[in-house]
TrEMBL record:
Keyword Membrane: yes
Transmembrane segments: 12-44, 56-85
Protein name: Protein LiaI
The species this protein was found in: Bacillus amyloliquefaciens (strain ATCC 23350 / DSM 7 / BCRC 11601 / CCUG 28519 / NBRC 15535 / NRRL B-14393 / F)
Superkingdom to which the source organism belongs: Bacteria
Length: 126
């Protein structure tokens, strides 16, 4: 089994990123995020057409909704970055140059412990 530090670190980043995405980011904030974005866009569009008062009011309300959704946006962005960099680390860690192989060493045939010699003596007595 080839395991290296980049592969293990990438796997941990992916696990933490997915836990933040599914556990830390609540998807109920997607609806206010969309409404705030649409209101901000509509307010800017109305302001550019010459309707300054209604454009400013809609833009301010949309911006307030977006600022209220800021923790959700940061959590989703952080989770996405963790998954991306974790995947990238796992792909880089697949090379054999930096990998460590964990295989037990075979015992030398000349090595005998006290148990082996006692066992052989026991078998000879039988």
């Amino acid at each position: 089994m080839n395991i290296n530090v980049k592969t293990a670190g990438g796997f941990l980043l992916i696990v933490f990123g997915l836990s933040v995405f599914f556990g830390g980011g609540h998807f109920a904030f997607i609806i206010p995020l969309a409404i705030g974005g649409l209101m901000l866009y509509w307010g800017i569009k109305r302001f550019s057409k010459g309707r300054a008062v209604s454009g400013i009011i809609a833009g301010v309300i949309g911006a307030m909704i977006l600022v209220g959704s800021l923790p959700f946006i940061v959590a989703i962005g952080l989770a996405g970055a963790m998954v991306y960099f974790g995947w990238k680390m796992m792909k880089q860690g697949g090379s054999d140059a930096d990998s460590r192989q964990y295989e037990p060493e075979a015992a030398s045939p000349g090595y005998q412990s006290g148990f082996d010699s006692e066992w052989e003596e026991f078998l000879k007595k039988k």
